[in-house]
Amino acid sequence: MTIRQAMVLAAGLGTRMRPITDTIPKPLVKIAGKAMVDYALDLLEEGGVTRAVVNVHYLADQMEAHLKARHHPEILISDERDQLLDSGGGAKKGFHLLEPGPVFIMNSDLFWVDAPNVHASSLTRLGQFFDPQTMDMALLCVPLERTTGHNGKKDFSLSPDGRLTRYRDGMENPVVYAGAIALTTGLLNNTPDGPFSLNRIFDRAIEGGRLYGLMLNGDWLTAGTPEAIGEAEAKLAALAAETAA
């Protein structure tokens, strides 16, 4: 299916990125001259999204001022100044600003570069892969060796039929969660109104055999610390050189 709306999680405190985030929110930290949240929004626009909710909390005025300069996709603000709601609670509140139906959730502090000459972007592929009849959620995943700036943690094991389970030592086909999800807004209807993590929803979907994964066709980057910015910029430069060669 084609998914036209998204929720971007951008309300975190960015404590590991200090001292940079003493004065700016983490999603506005620049990698190769561009704010991380803009990498995420550009990927969503490329994937066909026309409306995105972005939640704000820490240094929210800066976030709102930056986002006002964007016109594509259309940006709506979910204000969490009064209470930080974690990933699940933040998504649930943001969904109230969107139409019921299929939606992407995407983190604002990571992004990827699709392999050259691909026929469809990874988000487009994720939307096409998602089947709400058999899946609660479809997660974009990436092998550890295609990550930059990651801490080395393996999140899930991807089975041959596409189902995901929590990774344990020795399991086959370990993958890293790439920070993008396809789901329907109604999946969070029967959840708390306060703070809760999406990990709770992941585990519930795993129990029902309804958490699926799709492999990213490209390279995934994140920058959680000031030192990781240089790593991400070096990787982007290397990828650009490979494409130009």
From TrEMBL:
Segments forming a coiled coil: none
EC number: 2.7.7.-
GO MF term set: nucleotidyltransferase activity
Pfam family, one: NTP_transferase
InterPro entries in UniProt: GlmU-like, NTP_transferase_dom, Nucleotide-diphossugar_trans
Keywords recorded for this protein, A-Z: Nucleotidyltransferase, Transferase
Domain Nucleotidyl transferase, residue spans: 6-111
Group of enzyme by EC: transferase
Tagged with keyword Lyase: no
Lineage: superkingdom: Bacteria
Protein name: MurNAc alpha-1-phosphate uridylyltransferase
Source lineage: Bacteria, Pseudomonadati, Pseudomonadota, Alphaproteobacteria, Hyphomicrobiales
